[in-house]
Inverse folding.
């Protein structure tokens, strides 16, 4: 079973309206980093990078 914190993080990610490929990239990075506390930071970093590249 997943921790409550992890479940809340998943819900927050769902609210970010990211594409599936974007979520996959975030989760791959998340698994490599193995730190739940970093996942929303990763989302923000990704969105900033995505916005600056367009």
């Amino acid at each position: 079973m997943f921790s409550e914190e992890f479940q809340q993080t998943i819900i927050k990610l769902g609210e970010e309206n990211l594409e599936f490929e974007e979520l996959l990239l975030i989760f791959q990075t998340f698994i490599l980093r193995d730190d739940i506390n970093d996942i929303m930071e990763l989302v923000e970093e990704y969105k900033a990078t995505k916005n600056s590249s367009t």
